[in-house]
Write a structure and sequence with these properties.
Blueprint lengths: L3 H7 L1 H9 L4 H12 L8 E5 L5 H9 L4 E6 L2 H7 L5 E4 L11 E7 L10 H10 L1 E9 L6 E2 L10 E2 L2 H8 L3 E9 L11 E8 L3
Parallel strand pairs: 1-2, 1-4, 2-3, 4-5
Antiparallel strand pairs: 5-9, 6-7, 8-9
Helix pairs in contact: 3-4
Length: 203
């Protein structure tokens, strides 16, 4: 069942958000090249939740030879563009999309900040369960949870330590790398987000 939060992002509010999220491919490639440099397993498959129009997946395709890319997106307008970027595009929410596979990386960029806090543990479980090796999140960071009014709306955007909560919930996740991307960076401006790469330990 779609939540009231998801209804917002599925409609015109989400359409406008999609348009604001367009960034140069070079900026996205630069950020993901930093992230991929810290991986030690071959990356042959990636699934992004809240994939939007697929711009992150396009950047990853430019960096990874032969990678198979999956994208999950709720907004119909964004999904229409995602289909040309992903090998497999799935229309739906991270909260209810039926998945049975695992991927080398499960990825979010600007998704967790828009999930109602009461649903976060379910989302964390999806990211953890469906990765073979890495969970990568690129989100707004704050050491304590805080709601930020967004475009005149309350309860649409939160900042918190998403990575810390994932590491606490799953003892066999290990923090591999993290970094901050400043909106005024001359090469890779990314709206002041922090990325975290975590590896799933086996054995």
């Amino acid at each position: 069942m779609i939540t009231s939060q998801e209804e917002t992002w599925a409609g015109s509010f989400g359409d406008a958000y999609t348009e604001r999220q367009r960034l140069p491919l070079a900026a996205r490639k630069a950020m993901f090249s930093r992230i991929l440099a810290s991986t030690r397993y071959p990356i042959t498959s990636v699934i992004e939740f809240g994939a939007g129009t697929g711009e992150n997946l396009r950047a990853l395709r430019a960096l990874l030879v032969g990678v198979k890319l999956y994208g999950v997106e709720l907004n119909a307008q964004a999904f229409g563009e995602l289909k040309s970027a992903a090998d497999v595009a799935i229309k739906g929410s991270i909260l209810d999309v039926p998945l049975t596979e695992t991927w080398d990386i499960t990825l979010t960029r600007g998704l967790l900040i828009h999930i109602q806090p009461v649903e976060l543990l379910r989302v964390y479980d999806v990211l953890y369960k469906h990765t073979r090796h890495y969970v990568c999140i690129c989100e707004y960071y704050n050491p304590t949870p805080v709601m930020i009014p967004y475009r005149g709306e309350n309860d649409r955007l939160w900042k918190r330590d998403f990575a810390g909560e994932l590491l606490n919930r799953y003892p066999n996740l290990r923090l591999v790398d993290y970094g901050f991307v400043y909106h005024r960076d001359p090469i890779i401006p990314q709206d002041d987000i922090t990325f975290f790469l975590m590896e799933k330990q086996h054995g």
